[in-house]
Specification:
- 2 copies of one chain form a homodimer.
- Chain A has 408 residues and is of the alpha+beta class.
- Chain A has 2 domains: 24-277, 4-Layer Sandwich (L-amino peptidase D-ALA esterase/amidase); 285-405, ArgJ beta chain, C-terminal domain (Ubiquitin-like (UB roll), Roll).
- Chain A is built from 12 helices and 15 strands.
- Chain A has helices at 64-73, 95-113, 134-138, 141-146, 153-159, 212-225, 258-277, 296-307, 310-317, 323-332, 363-370, 397-405; strands spanning 24-29, 41-46, 51-56, 81-89, 120-127, 168-176, 179-188, 201-206, 241-246, 285-293, 343-346, 349-353, 356-357, 374-380, 386-393.
- In chain A, a hairpin with a 2-residue loop joins strand 6 (168-176) and strand 7 (179-188).
- In chain A, helix 8 packs across helix 10 (323-332).
- Chain A is globular, with a radius of gyration of 22 Å.
- Chain A starts with 23 loop residues before the first strand and ends with a helix.
- Chains A and B meet through helix 9, helix 10, strand 13 and helix 12 of A and helix 9, helix 10, strand 13 and helix 12 of B.
Chain lengths: 408, 408
């Protein structure tokens, strides 16, 4: 097998038509941080009165921009807010220089956009361990500010890409108290892809009004069931960041709206799935649904053990209904399991039941399911009511080619 | 890249000349469990007075022979002991049928070899979820018993192979109270290799006399620093088993001997390294040495996070000194780390120091180290005295080819 496809075979046919979110404007520019001949900086400015919430990597070696965002998130303010993102350099593991770069950029954005520095959030994604040449970013801030536009979100989705094979966007519209509100978001990342170190970055905007603490609660809860439930290769980035901004421009307070909560979940889940579908070398989208565990936490531990198993991921690549490897992954997960109560299905095909191969198991039917583009592995522990669903992709020659065959 | 090499490039030039261990005899036979045209059953019989110790997989879905061995280990006895191993079928996830197969085999071995059934240990390795055709094993027990020979250990090492690319053996001789004692052992496995489910099996024999509890203590302690410190692909078998038998035929009690303890450790470490060197698709042998951690447990957690990272393993395959990925793996491990105290070396090349790229880092020197067959990654956390060393191999196209390209 040669080079992986230039665009993931799991990519959507096209970038979606994302709605304008009132109160948010975007601009992109080519700053030359690392890539040449393409926009590599994105600026988003949120109107005064916006609230901002976010979730970030729990890595112990997380990058300077992540630490800065985390420190700023709690602060409520009536002022506007800005998000500045560069691709090509992660500003991670750069010591005091990294902190100085964040300070220089946020200070300059604050001055240029007339926004308090405490409301300027930044992300950086790309190679790690290299000093961020922040001057080239500061130099284009005036042009970025002058070019802000309400319909620039597609360009923003492209500017934050590193080795992504397609730009990722999702949106939802939902009525809250009879008034429509809009949610639109973008993401980059395909796990910890090569050649250097990629990250997952997600930005979601809504014109609903949502109090900061309510927004943070929603985002935190949904992160656990969306972005924290995907894995490409089990390697956790130093820069993963999700930031959600609510401008309130619709005039509708959605802080208590179940419909808004569900719509936000839908956008987050769609973006999470798109990240998996751009997993390096991926040819199959895989859902692992675990039920009957002793607890939800146990279910997720089993599901992640299955989703991260190289042997299961290679079996899926080979379209092999190798359920013995699922038994193995449940056994090694560390969560409670009873071998003789375990049941496994591939799609609708019952493969194993009560600790042994199902009496009516059909290898042909299971093999037919494995030939599809979306693979569903269901596991029931038979122990209790705990459940969890996670998503991953297969492990192919493309992954090796991307990560081993070319020097970074 | 096409099919992986028929024999691992990391294999030793030849199987070592293992010494005869007085009090142990071996026989092998072709029972036709799954493979045709080769020996697939191994019988080892230990003389009366032998002690037996062992360690086994902690998988929650472990196989019937493993559970049987674990139940029998504690029992002291003056009787002899027997170990019966088949390849081709793991007798794992086979429900009550699996238990019945173990019962049938151990009962027949006991009768044939005149050994109490409580002293008959079995292992099975190969495909899982298929009933073990134990009759074909029972049928050849008479021939096995008749063919027992003190110098049959090399044939035994070959009979227990599944998809291993070479047979694995190691030995040591050491003086205890002025008298030489001998240790010889064999192993099979290359991690959880495909096409079905492989296992790691290890059998070590000595003519020293070692009390059962002393032997078990030695084996347990050494397992933590040898077999529990290797990983090929992070996937844990349902059948991993290590059994050590001490016949006492040398007349020397080594229960308190530090020299014996060290020699046993050497044999266990050598066998563990040989398993890594037969890791599927492996082209590099990798040592991860972590120092300066808050505790030994933390050091091992960091080391295993590095050793199991697909991005680090592919970087090694690509001979890329990608130290950013080491930072990432330390960050995600969950053990204590301070980004700004972290130091990393590749071989003797200091790559990162105190949280940033080392001022005198030479990319050329690091790249030169990566071209070797043995790669050493050193990580110092700068936090305390905790340390651990683990071993792994690289992740190559060969791994994908073995596990994905062919249906099991």
């Amino acid at each position: 097998m040669g080079k992986p496809a230039p665009v993931s075979p799991l990519a959507p046919a096209r970038f979606p038509d994302l709605p304008v979110v009132e109160g948010v404007r975007f601009a992109t520019h080519a700053a030359g941080v690392k890539y040449q001949g393409r926009d590599d900086v994105m600026l988003a400015v949120l109107a005064p009165g916006s609230t901002v919430a976010g979730t970030f990597t729990r890595s112990a070696t997380r990058a300077a921009p992540v630490l800065d965002c985390q420190a700023k998130l709690g602060g409520a303010s009536d002022a506007g807010a800005a998000i500045l993102v560069n691709s090509g350099n992660a500003n991670a593991f750069t010591g005091k220089n990294g902190v100085a770069s964040v300070e220089a950029i946020t200070k300059a954005v604050a001055a240029t956009c007339d926004i308090p520095q405490a409301r300027v959030f930044t992300s950086s994604t790309g190679v790690i361990g290299e000093p961020l040449p922040h001057d080239c970013i500061v130099d284009v801030l005036g042009q970025l500010n002058a070019g802000l536009s309400a319909d620039g979100i597609k360009d923003a989705a492209q500017a934050i890409m590193t080795t992504d094979t397609f730009a990722k966007g999702a949106s939802a519209s939902v009525e809250v108290n009879g008034t429509p509100v809009t949610i639109a978001g973008i993401a980059k990342g395909s796990g910890m892809i090569a050649p250097d170190m990629a990250t997952m970055l997600v930005y979601i905007f809504t014109d609903a009004a949502v109090g900061q603490s309510a927004l943070q609660s929603m985002v935190t809860a949904h992160t656990d069931t969306t972005f924290n439930c995907i894995t490409v290769d089990s390697d956790t980035s130093t820069s993963d960041s999700l930031i959600v901004g609510a401008t309130g421009a619709s005039g509708v307070d959605a802080s208590e709206s179940v419909a808004f909560l569900d719509a936000l979940h839908g956008v987050m889940q769609e973006l999470a799935h798109l990240v998996v579908k751009d997993g390096e070398g991926a040819t199959k989208f895989v859902e692992i649904a675990v039920t009957g565990a002793a607890s939800d936490a146990d279910a997720k531990q089993h599901a992640m053990s299955i989703a991260n198993s190289p042997l299961i991921k290679t079996a899926i690549a080979g379209e092999d209904p190798n359920w013995g490897r699922v038994v193995m992954a449940v056994g090694k997960s560390g969560a409670a399991a009873d071998r003789d109560l375990l049941s496994i299905r591939f799609g609708d095909v019952q493969v194993a039941k009560d600790g042994w191969r199902s009496p009516d198991y059909s290898e042909e039917e299971a093999a037919a399911h494995m030939k599809g583009e979306t693979i569903v592995i269901g596991v029931d522990l038979g122990l209790g009511g705990g459940k969890a669903t996670v998503w991953t992709c297969d492990l192919t020659h493309g992954y090796i080619t991307i990560n081993a065959d070319y020097r970074s």
